Amino acid sequence: MTALGMSAEDRTAEERALPPRWLGLLFALALAIRLAYVLAMAHDPYFTNPVIDAAVYDQIGWSIARGHGHPDDVFWQPPGYPYFLGGVWWLFGDSYLAPRLPQALLGAFNVSLVAWIAACWFARRVGLASGIVAAATGC
């Protein structure tokens, strides 16, 4: 027991508890930032004209969406993202906005996950600070 009347283990568990509403607020903040970015980026010429690696993922994703499969026998880039793109385009049609919305949702969920893990490993305020930084930096 400490001078405050609780053991060090109890105080640590209490300090590490990050309320679900905080996780929800961090998610909402992160999603708002990401959606604002996607909407602002929609006017950029590269939004619908990908270059370099994005162009390769785009080409493979369209091939998958059209039912032709992955065009390469050997994966020289990780195949998961082109399959994600192909699935989104197959479901929602030929919109470059369509894959960016689930990506924004996943990114916002990632912020809540970062905050939760930091709170579990360290303390509530560390989790909150980590979540705010992750939300603001597009982590």
Summary keywords:
139 residues, 2 domains
Number of domains: 2
Low-confidence stretches: 1-6
Tell me the structural class: mainly alpha
Largest sheet: none
Q: What's the helix count?
A: 6
Number of strands: 0
Which range does the strand content fall in?
A: under 5%
Cα distance spanning the termini: 40 Å
Task: Give the overall shape, derived from the CA principal axes.
Answer: elongated
Query: Which percent range fits the helix content?
Result: 55-70%
In round numbers, the mean pLDDT is 84
- Please trace the helix and strand order, writing H or E for each element: HHHHHH
Rg over CA atoms = 20 Å
Question: If you had to describe this structure to a student in words, what would you say it looks like?
Answer:
Helix content is 67%, strand content 0%. It is mostly helical and 139 residues long. It has two domains: 18-45 and 96-139, no CATH class; 49-93. The longest helix is centred in the N-terminal third of the chain and has 22 residues, at 20-41. The model is unreliable at 1-6 (pLDDT under 50).
Produce the secondary structure layout.
Blueprint (H helix, E strand, L loop, with lengths): L7 H9 L3 H22 L11 H13 L14 H13 L7 H22 L2 H14 L2
Give a quick summary of the entry.
With 139 residues, the protein is mainly α. It folds into two domains: 18-45 and 96-139, no CATH class; 49-93. It has helices at residues 8-16, 20-41, 53-65, 80-92, 100-121, 124-137.
